[in-house]
Design brief:
The chain has about 475 residues and is mainly β. Helices cover about 5% and strands about 40% of the residues. Strands 2, 4, 5, 8, 10, 12, 13, 14, 15 and 17 form a 10-stranded mixed β-sheet that branches. Strands 1, 20, 22, 27, 28, 29 and 33 form a 7-stranded antiparallel β-sheet that branches. A hairpin with a 2-residue loop joins strand 28 and strand 29.
Length: about 475
Amino acid sequence: MNIGPKIHKDNLVLCYDASSTRSTLRTHQRNNILPDPGAWVTGTGGSSGYGGNGSSTEQLRVLVDDDPWDRNSVVWRTTPDATSGADGGWNSSYYPVDVQYTYRYSVWVRRHTSGTGGTFYMGMNPNPIRNDNNSSQGNPYFTYPSIASLTQNVWYLVVAHVFYAGYNGERHPKSGWYENGIKISDKSYGNVGTEDSRWSDTTTSARHRAYHYYTTNTSSGIEFAYPRIDKVDGNEPTIEQMLFRGESGIQNLITDSTNPVITPYNSGSYGKLVDDYRQLNWFEMDGTDDYISLPSTIQKTPSQSWTVEIVFNPWDQSDTSWNGIFGGSLNYGGYWMFHSSGNLTYYEGSSGAGTQITYTSLTKSSHFTAGKFHHLTISYSSTGTNTGTYNIYLNGEDFTTFNKTFSFGYSLGLHSIGRGDGNRYGTNNVASFKLWDEDLTESQISGNYEAHKNRFDMGTYPV
């Protein structure tokens, strides 16, 4: 990622950016025709853009902590009843396609039960043309293996391609089944044959289908995660990105790409993509349960200097609660930055004894504007074993300074973005977050702000 020539890079140890495809594959959701499956919420029945295949009770979306990348995600679980037929899964809505392009279909699937029964189907509509015999295939499926052929608790990525109209070649080399990051033998070929398929000249729209079908075993079940239909135009994620980076976490852009630090999202609408003229993205925090957990290895003590920078939009000015911007842990309490009715507050506490510094000059009406991005920086300079100085900057300008003496053993370990200590969640759209292992100077912070100003259409303080 090019983080800009003006940004101070020395001792930069953490960088998350919602607009970077290296930081999160969720930015590729603009290319996924299907509604973002990362926005699924727990419940039964169908979901927006995904009509349930079978009864409402046969569809169960649950939060798991072992998704395809061993992180937290909401997955779609089939829960068959005792009647053979449609036993879970979906028919997606129809979405426009351009038959001059190849499209890639994919879904993650695993058998989560020891019980078996029925068949897994992945398919589409309408009728494509089979590449192996040039015939139109009604009710098309790319694959339909038995549930018993899936190893319990193993996630498989299943990939198929529908080529552009008029294609006369062979199967796409990336079509097939993937297990543990390796392409394996196909569990089955569907009724489109072994050579993939292509669009009919008359096709204008298509949908995605993933089913559990034909079982009476109520102890049988499979789970689906992160279905996609991608237009293959160079903007789609690679198979390798889908396999190894995933869509349920974000990567620290400072680490080596072969050994990235990935942190999971919490459940909720935490990654809303905004397609405006600047192609800005952000992690949307709804104030209820949304936040980004930081790596546990980041720990700071009062004898260490550090700097945190966050670019965020406090979108709900009517909220008078303690809206956490970011927070850290203490031995007996916590510290965090939050906003309330337009005021910016730093709070630090332990065992009921704390320091709260509220800057009332940062008012809702003239300084802290909903719908505007703000560049907030806190630079902590250690002056001793238990003493230090905080310098707070807003949009590149020195906002306030205060000294702090710690009377007990703090461990200033940053633990989350979008949440303060004590689960104080914030109504914030967070676009980027950085951490340095040093206290940046005013000129360095000003330079960092200048590197962000045009991208986020930010003015100078007061905003």
